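dumping these here so i dont lose them again. two proteins, back to back, each one seq then structure tokens. dont judge the mess
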Amino acid sequence: MSHALIAKSRAEMAMALDAGIAQLNVESVPELVVLGELAAARRQRAPTALRINPDVAAGSHEKISTGRKHDKFGIPYEEAPALYRLAAEIEGIEPVGVHLHIGSQIGRLDPFEAAYRRG
């Protein structure tokens, strides 16, 4: 489980914690760890959902697809249970759910159904 920190900067995470954001969607192990460190240093617990990549092709354009196994966003489906357990052990993290995003400009419902059936 070694994924790059690709989504939010430390400053953005700190701003979200200061604002009392109701849920932060985390895309990788490094992002989860950084968020946990930031929250713990503030004596907070960050309400966190894991962005799971369900390995579902939504049929949208190649450049905006985000739900397939080889797409760069999200936590691989098979790693989700272990990462959720890890999230529960990190002092500054309060796991509150999972999040899925399989792409944009999707004109059919069946890719969404397939993604949520995996969860």
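---- next one ----
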Amino acid sequence: MEHLSGSDAAFLHLESPETPMHIGGLAILELPADYSGDFMDDVRTHIQNRMHMAPIFQRKLINMPFDIANPIWVMDEAIDIDYHIRHVIVPPPATRNTVDKLVARLHSSLLDRSRPLWEMHILDGLPVPADLPKGTRYVGLYSKMHHAALDGMGGQVLMEAIMDVSAVPRPANKRKRRREAARGDNYGIAELAASGVMHNISQSIKLTKNVPKLTSKAFEMLKKKKNPDGSNAQRMNWFAPKTPLNTTITNQRSFARFSIPYADSKKIAKLNNVSLNDVVMAISGEGMNRYFADEGLKVEEPMLAAIPVSVRPEGNVELSNQVSMARMSLGTNIKDPLERLQVINASSTHAKTLMSDVKSIMPTDFPSIGAPWFMSSIASTLTRARVANSLPPFANVLISNVPGPSITLYFAGAKQVSTYPVSIPYHGMGLNITLQSYNGWLDFGVISCQKLMPDIHELAQHMKDAHKELLELSLSAHAEASNVSAKTN
């Protein structure tokens, strides 16, 4: 039996109607003017032919008796393809905003746990750029997959299964019948209970071995660090400053998307000797500053970002989630954008150093005795008691940077123009900014609670403006430095 790991199961146990724990994406696809087929039929055929190539398509959950351990995955070959792949017409007049509102609404509903944890929605009627040949058609592919079933490695397997590098789909790999598929979910209570007990015992042994190392590392991280001159280094605050986004959220979502040239962001990074991720943090923090300023709010202390960090050992290809969370400063209390960028770089370097020290011993699986009850109680309490309204936030925003392909991809014969992530806000951290690089662009998906950010498109515009300003300042500073150097020589 394949039990969910502790980190995978946490996404299930912490889920509630107000906080769906699925991740998704909106891919904009282009069909040429001479296309005359039925794209919905093409998509159904495409997925059915490749369903065996990515485990998420056919795996469903079976709960343990009395929740004594995490659920297990079993194969479900009786897939209702019409349930999982749906056709949606964008309400006219179709604009970018109406498409984003539709995606936000689709992302608000929970996945059916009695089925494999995925859905795809083909969005018809998208607006088409005026400079394309007459008859060109744009369609959207909005997909959502439960985070318990899909991590970074699983996402890579999924993309390799369903995407192609040409408009003519490659032949699908030959289906191999899995031995466990014949059995499906035909397990007895005693068999499930015994498996759950053994799983808990094995995970307890693993965790016990790492406890001394984890404890030692925790105390080391709490010690004050020293600067090269012997003075105490500045330590990040225990908690982030409170903002209107760090509160209890509802089940309704608001979503916005935008793209910026990858080359421009790399140029900013190179000119300032920082990473691309530092540039992303800088424009996110400045965008939030400007958004709050529009609301008449100024956050005095530097806002903090939570960033997912992989703890996957080299060579590990398991499909379970193997990720932890680090924090870094966005330097939002510093006015000068270039100075702020250097502060962000120093903070991100420190965060990476800390995580590199602990990633080899960080547990991603742990005993699950009582975990379903305990975590579900936490999720219920956060919602009903509105605990996040009074607690200081761990971080102000979650920001994730997902590397993607640098070439054009195709799905069921249609060219993918762009791909925007649609991720997870949660109680106490009601804003999620996720981006993915694709074919020369950085595609951003910004998602929040509709009640907290009904005007989320304004944040997206502020981030774009901040990127443009940072590029101009970087070029200007570099040109000035070059002139000074030339005069000196």
